[in-house]
Amino acid sequence: MDDIYNYATLIMIKKRKERGWTQQQLADFCCLSRSFICDIENSHKRARLNLEHINILASENVFNCSPKDFLPNKAIPEK
After folding, report:
1. Boundaries of each HTH cro/C1-type domain copy (predicted)?
2. pTM tops 0.90
3. Contact 27/57 with Cβ under 8 angstroms?
4. Which of 9, 27, 45, 63 is the most exposed place for a label (fewest CB within 10 A)?
């Protein structure tokens, strides 16, 4: 189950870095704390993106993309 969360997180990190944004800048655009963004990006923490976060990330104020961009094209098999 963690694989789907890791996938979405990796997409968020990729999009943030492509824009040259710091964690603080992304947090500001999303109205979230930098520590929450850091916890999401740190796979050892329990923080995870949820559908509301993905909707915010996909908004025109942040990454201006489809929420589907944070999901794989096919289901990730369970281990």
Report:
1. 12-70
2. yes
3. no
4. 45
